[in-house]
Amino acid sequence: MSTDLLSFDCRFQYGQGFTLESAFALPPGISVLFGPSGSGKSTCLSLIAGLLRPDAGAIRLCDTTLVDRGSGLWVPPHRRRLGMVFQDHLLFPHQTIRRNLGYGMASRDDNGTRLAQVVEMLDLGGLLDRYPGQLSGGEQRRVALGRAMLSEPQLLLMDEPLTGLDEAMRDRILHHLHQAHERLGVPMLLVSHDQVVVRRMAGHVVVLEEGRVVDQGPAHETLDRATTRTMASHPGPINLLRVEEVRRSGDHHEGVIAGQRFHLAGPIAPDSTTVYVRCLPRDVALLIGEVSRISMRNHLVGTIRDLIHIPGDHRALVAVDVGQLIWVEVTDSACRELGLAIGVRVTCLIKALATDVVG
Amino acid sequence: MTGWWLTPPEWQAIRLSLLVAFWAVVIFLPPATVLGWWLARRDFWGKTAVDTVLNLPLVLPPVVTGYLLLVMLGRQGVIGRPLDQWLGVEIVFTWRAAALASGVIAFPLMVRAIRVAMLGLDTRLEQAALTLGAHPVRVFFTITLPLARHGLIAGGVLGFARSIGEFGATIMIAGSIPGETRTMPLYIFGIMESPNGIARAQGMVIVSILIAAGALIVGQVIENRSHRQAGGPKR
Amino acid sequence: MNHDSHTTHHALRQMLVISAVLVLGSGCVASEDPGRESGEVLVLAAASTQDVLQRLADLLRERGGPVMTISAAGSNALAQQILAGAPGDIYLSADPLWVQEIANAGHAAETVPLLGNDLVLVVPAENRADVREPGDLLSDRVRHVALAGEEVPAGRYAEQALRALGLWDTLSGSGRVVRGQNVRLTLAYVERGEVDAGIVYATDAAAAPSVRVVHTFQREDYPPVVYPLVLTTRGRDNPAAAAVFAFLQSPEARAIFAEHGFHPLAAP
After folding, report:
1. Are B146 and A94 in contact (CB under 8 A)?
2. Which of A209, A325, A343, C131 has the fewest CB atoms found within 10 Å of its own CB?
3. Comparing A21-25, A113-117, C52-56, C223-227, which segment has the lowest mean pLDDT?
């Protein structure tokens, strides 16, 4: 228990409606609360930050009890030393960016070194004397992140830090978050409903559904299980494949997924050796037997781990383990004709052009 | 019309009115701010009662309010007596009484304006400030107040304008003492008692209209300006 | 944010509109003549005469005489109503100056000096400042002395009475003079003990059991307090008004006025 960064065990009811009743523990590092919207993720953050009071239960951060309804203990939000990045930033509109950043500075920063460090890391240099209303959404989010980090939190809470940003900005923020974690060693808890974010960020993930913890554990394994369950009601899984040993090969790049060659399309940053590639399950084809001549560049061989028929939709989702898990969407009839079943060896065919490199 | 030029007693009344209204706002705006915030943010048992009592000066005849103040603060009053006997502080029949009466009458207007502003404020900004480790008092002064400044300005201006016009409660508790408590309305009422008073009062009538309108316009201008500064996005 | 500034804008605009309406409205006076039944007489009475007039009205009604409707207010307010054309048949004023004003404007058909009054020095029941005569007003024990406003007759008379006693300059220079809006408020200050002494009419003092009259000023020291009775030009056309006008001057009415502390003045 003492190795946990945070232990959470609370019940909270909103009016007569939704009840959150969840218990989980987070290890140090980066964790994600994952689940569809309305599953209670943000409520958990508010409870941890002290913006809401649980009806029952307790929350502990390291060795400090933040709230315990049993003993009546309550640490008010301003003494919790938690940084919070809100989904809508909540920058103070009447203050310059400089004052926003400095608002929560926990200790004296006489020569401004810490401020300078964060400003440099988040690339906020040109913004300091402006007001939040003059900034773009991405800039505001970086400022909100910087402001929270400068309050020297014991844990950084972030509510959907990447939602609503375009691809490029998302990559930048993800990059900044990783940097912040590495350089400042701040543990983080993110809330997200986006698998891509979770897979790229998290060491640990807690899956919430309708106010309850349905699963938790290391990110990739847990997510693979979680998608199985939530698929019927949600957009379904997105494949995010880790491609290693990326190198240039003639006019394109290629790398390796679990020992199998993988062709990349599109520009790759010159210094990247590991990239993530995203593709939709419906853009993956399955083949049984040998490939002869085909334009699809990527052939990944694996074993079917799971097969889920989506009720009333004449579709099935097939999870193929090629070293990493790849989800493939096929019709029921194809499934029958190919004789797909758990344990069957198949080859996944993926067009290089159907993949997105996400950094 | 006997002259546009105001006589020394008239100037005295104008100066006194401005002084009284100024202090009425200075003294009553802070509690109005706290109360406006409290009413906007907290739900508690008896809130309706507090609200009702608070708004009484708005609907009671000012003379009644003045009488109640006299009962409380007079030399024989529950508050006035100890003040007078122990501290030697005299309130009734001083300009302080005039400021107090004006302030009490204007208080509900100030609270109302501030309360509306507080209700329109995003409380999550305050929550954000709390999560950054700021003490609630600091949050109030650095986030809540600056963001509610339009309400404070509106409350101050309305309070000032109302104080300038206060008559009923002032005459009850402050009397009509030249140079001490005889503000513009009292002066005007006084000279209207005499047959040629209406003509004599005309200059003062115009001055009071100008001051009241001026206060409202100044408030409007300040508000517009502060609205343009910071706050909203600049184009 | 938008919402709140909208609301304050709205409130400010409303204030402006309201003040404009008030300013404009104060210039006009309702000019309708409320339908009067014959035999009804509207008496505009100085506030201090309200009680006694009501008694006389009751007496008249018992006898089946004309119905007196009494509208009591400050003499100045009533006079201004008459000047503005308000329907009043009879005006009993505490201030001869206003009566003069009405006569000048051609609203007075007939005027008689009806009543006189005394000016008295009153103190709160406990009289902590130990005021026994006008000279005591200058003592250090006295903090406040209440007089009626300098523009109302009671205030003017009191000032002149004190001047005749040689007390006025010192007293007014001492900053202890508080001016009540009218005699009633002046008296209220004394009743509540907010001031140490006050100068009011004898009739008002008699109506306030909790104050003590310590001194009655010499009538020679100030202009005579006169309550003129006016039959307005409007009342002249109302036979019932003429009857009431006569009744108020009758020996019977004079006796009742005297019971209330007024001095009925000799009929001319």
Report:
1. yes
2. A343
3. A113-117
